[in-house]
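Intended use. Records like the one below are meant for learning the mapping from a protein sequence to its folded structure. Do not use them to infer anything beyond what is encoded.
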Amino acid sequence: MKRQLTILAVLLLVCGSKANDEIAVLPGAQYVLRNVGTGTYLMKDGTLTADEGEAANWRVMTNDTVFTSSPEMSCYIHSDETILQLDYSSFSWNVNFSTEANTTDMKPSETTPGAFTFHYRFLASDRYLGVEVDEEGNGHLAPVRDASAFSDWEFVPTSHPKDYSYRLMSMNRSSGDSRYCIAYRSRSPKGDELWMSGWMAVPTDSEGGASVADHFLFSAHYTMCKRSQWPTSSDPIDGYSSKFSSNKPVMVEPDYLGYGITEEWDHPYLAADIMAEECIDMLLAAHDLMRDLHQTDCQTLAMPTYGIGSSQGGSIILACQKYVETSPRLTEEQRNTINWVRTCACAGAYNPLATLSHYFVQDDVSVPSVVPLLIVGMVAGFPDIFGDTKAEAFFSDAFLEAGIMDMISSHEYESEGIAAAIKTSCGGNMHGILSPEAQDLNSDLAQKLLKAFGQCDLTRDWSPKADVILYYHPSDDVVPHLNLVSAAKGLQDKCQGQFEIRQTSLGIQHVVSCVEFFAKMIFGGYKE
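Structure written out for the chain above:
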């Protein structure tokens, strides 16, 4: 099921009769909701209170890409546990607090400048989220026919904010699981705080309440250049683990920096430490979501984490294990909460420097889009090494004139389409892709690149504590076999858990090996 992303943008809504009056409601920011007619505040169970300090903190979740001034928009507000919505069912109108979102609209109020109405239409019938006051002066929520001050709601910044590590962007529940797109707190390669995005699925009981999972399955995805491929744009293939596997895990899969709501950033492709930190930040946010929405204390339950990934994801998931086990940024409490027990990786570039060297030697790259992704990724991931050097300095005139960089940054092309354009313009070999200076390994430009690649080597300076199982095929045409050789030589004797190498049976191509790997993982192979 397609889900549109929420860009981290201000919702500018023109309210009332003053064309220049604008109010801003930030997705994810925390508010209390004040009913204009009664002056009371909304609680998360639908009751009202006169005390702002007792009111629920509400956050905005939208299901559209960008909102500017608009007469009507689809929007949800949610507390820790529930989404507020209007609906029509069983021949009656209802106000619900549910874990499944519908199409309740938020509109600028026509009667109170700076306020909003929540509105729903079923066929030709309309209702607003309003407050009805009984004879004793007590108010309660009700779906009302007409807009008035009693159906107008003010978003008031809360005086008692919570320190959320995530915010919901979309939510869907069906067939025994709840699926989320979330934004979560992380930081850029320069250390600046930012919000990133990812996808997760939680197996639940029939009411969408407490989770029935007993472990996490943390997945790092393969190379995805096109926007529609990202986890938060389309259910990822490994998400079927929550459907088909008897294990029923909590599935967690980040978009990565440069994708999802951070698509304006360059993607730090294979910058292992940077990518691992950003991914593990999502895993920690997922633990918080499990506590808030599914009454599951993952730390007390000591829920184990299994990591899976192929191709780019194979190297990233191994980097995640290394980060969990060695990073000083994590506390021991966080390590124990994550409880990483095993990594299953297939055809990963665990030693990117060796991979690049192989490309230079053979001078014929089967999927040449990997080369600019690697270079752009190193420049994006290591600003301390490259300084003011731009990625464009590494590429030939023919490559730059073909508009390949624009194709990558547009997120409108799959890796195969970018590769085809490179082959047409440059011949698909290293000498055609790279500038003369980049080809001179003694140049300052090339030395910067080699230094960055050297910092991404996962096959040395580390003794894994959890299990490591590496899948490969010797005929891989994209990620050279020497990555497996390097990993075995550097990690096998140091691994404190199980270290095993498994050859995929189909081989033929890199993609086929990865598909075979995921077929095993979807049906629970990561626990074998």
